[in-house]
Amino acid sequence: MNLYERLKDCPRRNDQGEKLRAFKRYPGQVGLEIETECEKFYDIPEFKFWKTHVDPSLRGAFNQEYVLIQPVKFKQELDLALEEFNQHSKNIKFIKDSITTSVHVHLNFLNSTFRETGNFITAYALTENLLSHYAGDNRKSNLFCLPIRDAEETYKYCMEFFQNAEKKNYNGLWFNENNLKYAALNLSAFRNFGSLEIRSFRGETNIVVIKEWLNILQNLYNYAHTPNRNPKNILLDWKNKGLELLYDIYGDY
């Protein structure tokens, strides 16, 4: 049974105690947030796939975070969404290489099982340090995307997530945002969206570069959804194959 079916009637509240709306199920696998900064004001274009809002954590005279309105499918829809962003923003002079901007990826797990979610977190944890290096020098041990090696509480929350799932204590899956918001693997996003948020990647508006990062995460996502795979045999493969396991997970990447 997928997570949507298990959790659709489970009550959820935000950090202020307010009841959250019931999960909405989307067929798309990926959500995206692109943070941008600009020295000058500009008229925000109209989009089909995107919405925008101001993020107080960003700098520059005019900043906007471009957020996909809903999760899109890795194939076709994602390319269309990125191309729309590219076409509508190509004349905007974004500040490049800003250390305060980043690209956040939400991977939708409401269509997945607990086993597939466990596969993803296991394979992610094994390779997070490599992903962190790839994400950019200013993202290593960055306070806004701390990897497990620097935020050991993330490991404990991963354990707690599956211990509660095993007991069918689904209310134990909703973690306080203040405890996990700035982890590279943000488990608290699951309470709000049914997604796992990957916060590692540097600030970037070049859709070619962004797509490469998304391709890497798509390989990891697909690996986690391989039939008959489970966290235990992933760890056994790591023990027996060592670095060869990277080819199983990431393919050509």
List keywords for this structure.
globular; 253 residues; 6-stranded antiparallel β-sheet; alpha+beta; 9 helices
Name the poorly predicted regions. none
Overall geometry comes to globular
Number of helices: 9
Helix/strand/pairing category: alpha+beta
Work out the radius of gyration. 18 Å
Percent helix, as a range, is 25-40%
- Hey, roughly how much beta strand do the residues contain? 5-15%
Q: Could you outline the blueprint of secondary structure elements for this entry?
A:
Elements: H1 3-7, E1 30-38, E2 50-53, E3 62-68, H2 77-89, E4 102-108, H3 114-135, H4 152-166, H5 177-180, E5 185-186, H6 189-193, E6 195-202, H7 207-224, H8 231-241, H9 245-250
Antiparallel strand pairs: 1-3, 1-4, 2-3, 4-6, 5-6
Helix pairs in contact: 3-7
What does this structure look like?
With 253 residues, the protein is an alpha+beta fold. Helices cover 39% and strands 15% of the residues. It starts with a helix and ends with a helix. A 6-stranded antiparallel sheet has the order 2-3-1-4-6-5. It is globular, with a radius of gyration of 18 Å.
Short summary:
The chain is an alpha+beta fold and 253 residues long. The chain has helices spanning 3-7, 77-89, 114-135, 152-166, 177-180, 189-193, 207-224, 231-241, 245-250, and strands at residues 30-38, 50-53, 62-68, 102-108, 185-186, 195-202. It is built from nine helices and six strands.
